[in-house]
Specification:
By secondary structure, the protein is of the alpha/beta class. Helix content is 28%, strand content 23%. The longest helix has 28 residues. The relative contact order is 0.09.
């Protein structure tokens, strides 16, 4: 019987080179590392020979049969990690003479030598047969690698596909013959999206659905049980190729439960706080865009492999933090893909074994499967259809930037949840960034602002004005100011309150900050200004953070450079205290962490009235206790990663702002709190 939290170990050996020795090593490893499933690589990375022949596949089918028979007596399943579909990159290889697959073509008309057009019918028949042959072994799952995409196929510029067949389809929908250059210019046209944008996204979406259908049906024709898992990349990039997550996973699963390996954005070790920014802006968004019943196994990988890439401790941190996704387990890729095999000396097996009890304990309780609570961060998988480009020069301009609040809020101790349906919200605190507000009709946005408190970045405020809906937030117009050009150097508190223990507290706004806006508010709008923007000569140049009509916070910063990183200058305790102060006055009653940067909270409610708070400590300094604003003091059950998941019954003490949990938490460790609903907690 598998553990509540499954380890799926991705296993590579080179048949004919070291398979006998490595199978013996695997037999030992699954026990020492507490592995539940072994995903056997086929034709992988350095050992990849291109689109392999069926005779080459026979070698891997034999290897998989041996792995299956080795593991079965131990109750351990096996799965298939076919390493290529479309193909990751050419890497100096070409298609074989008997392979007449249509190559992928980029925006400049360059054809790949090995990467294929996913709409090629001959390739679809080929890949379907590969998967059908794998399915005949009755593995637990067959994985579709993350090269199943249109972007990122070196040496192509961005990716494809702009082959002649795709150009024919684009032209057919446009109602006239199109050149590649004409079509791409339309797709990327600055301002209001050209009709060619929708054609590109629709056809790209249908292309990948067609290929997924071929694989899914081929597997289902052979087995009614084998699941098909998708390995995916960053959702903001997939948006530029029109990915429909629900439809794609349904086409692959063909009646079984959908499965996805969510990308964890940390192949190499990084500062934990920066890793968590990417985790919240990429992995958590990806989770929200999938069907609710999707089984999730995020991607733990330490490419290019060894402790030179990632320490055992950071590996443990990724395991622990992945629980915020409410996953069913995790895929584990720790060793070279060149045939070296398992490297015992690295010690990863010890980390996996030592961490497993806590992962099992938390998962088995089901507390992280409850309703997510917190600030509702708006996102939309279809944003590439609606966003406005500025230059029209590259495909990257189609990448939405909607994850800002998800990166900022938890770093300041504020729980959040991604939300794709603003029409369903009433009495919530909602956060909008980028151009996400272009995705819904006027009446939905009218209801959103009427029924909720809304946080707006500068880009979101501009989007609202551009749509002629600025009045919903009391806005007349916005004027952009570029950072480091002299108009503003710092933000200063102007509401008479003390933050960080000082009056008129200041927060810098130069160099590592962002552009900002000077907002003109509508006459008669009720303004509660928290900060103003000042230049180096101490002259006020614009309002800063302002609550408008008691319903909207205008956060004046925007045009962020990265969809996966918060500008460092925006991260400080002055701004954190201001934001928590604003939210505490909105009726947001989820607990907020105070005084502990990067102690990141994820809040859940269950139907029986219980509340759970999962805390991930991404700072380097330990905390002696956890201070929670907006939480009523009382009895708690606590599970800490440092003691292996043993339950501790404690009583939190009351404070002026909420409660204190008198338990320490070290860097890169986690803590799960659970309590029954008390007066003062938000009703679910």
């Amino acid at each position: 019987m598998k553990d509540p939290f499954s380890y799926i170990f991705r296993f590579c050996c080179d048949p004919g080179f070291n398979d006998t020795a490595e199978l013996a090593a695997l037999d030992r490893y699954v026990d020492e590392a507490c592995v539940d499933d072994v995903a056997v690589f086929a034709n992988v990375e350095e050992l990849n020979t291109g689109h392999m022949s069926y005779e080459e596949q026979d070698v891997y089918l034999d290897l998989m049969t041996r792995v299956r028979d080795l593991l079965a007596p131990q109750g351990i399943s096996f799965s298939v990690n076919q390493w290529h579909s479309v193909m990751h990159a050419d890497l100096g290889k070409r298609m074989r003479e008997d392979q007449h697959f249509r190559p992928m073509v980029d925006i400049h008309g360059r054809a790949a030598e090995l990467c294929v057009c996913p709409l090629c019918e001959e390739w679809q028949r080929y890949i379907a047969r590969l998967y059908a042959r794998y399915a005949a072994l009755e593995p637990s799952m067959v994985w579709v690698e993350d090269d199943f995409r249109l972007h990122n196929h070196d040496p192509l510029d961005w990716g494809g596909c702009f082959c002649e067949e795709h150009l024919r389809l684009y032209s057919e929908r446009a109602g006239k013959p199109l050149t590649r250059e004409e079509f791409i210019a339309g797709v990327l046209q600055p301002g209001e999206p050209h009709p060619y944008r929708k054609i590109w996204l629709d056809v790209s979406r249908e292309t990948m659905l067609c290929a997924a259908r071929a694989i899914g049906r081929a597997v289902r024709a052979v087995s009614s049980q084998v699941q098909v898992g998708l390995m995916s990349s960053a959702p903001y990039v997939h948006a530029a190729e029109g990915r429909d997550w629900h439809a794609l996973l349904r086409e692959l699963s063909q009646g079984t439960v959908p499965v996805d390996r969510i990308h964890l954005p940390g192949y190499q070790e990084s500062v934990p706080s920066q890793y968590m920014q990417r985790f919240n802006m990429v992995s958590m968004m990806n989770r929200a865009m999938m069907p609710a019943d999707t089984m999730v196994y995020p991607e733990l990988e330490n490419y290019p492999f060894s402790r030179y890439s990632k320490s055992c401790r950071f590996t443990r941190f990724q395991l622990l933090s992945s629980l915020a996704l409410a996953p069913d387990g995790i895929t584990i890729d720790l060793y070279d893909l060149n045939g070296n095999g398992i490297v015992w000396e690295e010690g990863y097996q010890n980390t996996l074994r030592q961490t497993k009890p806590y992962l099992n304990s938390v998962t088995a309780k089901g507390l992280l499967k409850g309703k997510r609570m917190g600030v509702q961060v708006l996102c939309c998988a279809d944003s590439a259809y609606t966003l406005h480009t500025s230059k029209g020069a590259s495909m990257e301009e189609l990448y939405p930037q909607e994850g800002f609040w998800a990166g900022l809020l938890p770093s300041m101790g504020i729980p959040y949840v991604y939300q794709e349906d603003p029409a369903s919200l009433h009495g919530e605190v909602v956060a909008a960034a980028g151009q996400v507000l272009r995705n819904w009709p006027d009446e939905v946005l009218e209801g959103l602002f009427e029924n909720n408190f809304v946080l707006l970045t500068a880009d979101a405020a501009e989007t609202l004005c551009d749509r002629g809906l600025g009045h919903l937030a009391g806005l007349e117009q916005v004027r952009w100011m570029r950072q480091n050009e002299g108009e503003y150097a710092f933000e200063q508190v102007t509401n008479g309150r003390e933050y960080t223990g000082r009056p008129c507290a200041r927060a810098s706004a130069v160099i590592s900050c962002s552009d900002a806006v000077d907002v003109t508010y509508q006459p008669g709008a009720k303004l509660e200004e928290y900060t103003g923007l000042y230049d180096s000569f101490r002259r006020r140049t614009a309002a800063g953070q302002v609550v408008v009509n008691g319903r909207v916070l205008v956060y004046p910063f925007g045009r962020f450079e990265s969809p996966v990183q918060i500008p460092p200058m925006l991260l400080n305790e002055v701004r954190a205290e201001i934001l928590r102060d604003v939210l505490s006055r909105t009726g947001l009653h989820v607990p907020m962490v105070e005084g502990a940067p990067y102690l990141e909270p994820y809040c859940f409610a269950n139907e029986e009235g219980g509340m759970a708070l999962y805390l991930i400590h991404a700072a380097s300094d330990p905390v002696e206790r956890v201070s929670l604003a907006g939480m009523q003091a009382g009895p708690l059950t606590v599970w800490r990663s440092e003691n292996g998941g043993r339950a501790e019954e404690i009583v939190s003490r009351p404070t002026k702002a909420g409660a204190v949990v008198d338990l320490p938490l070290n860097s890169m460790e986690t803590m799960l709190l659970f309590w029954q609903h008390r007066e003062g907690d938000k009703e679910v």
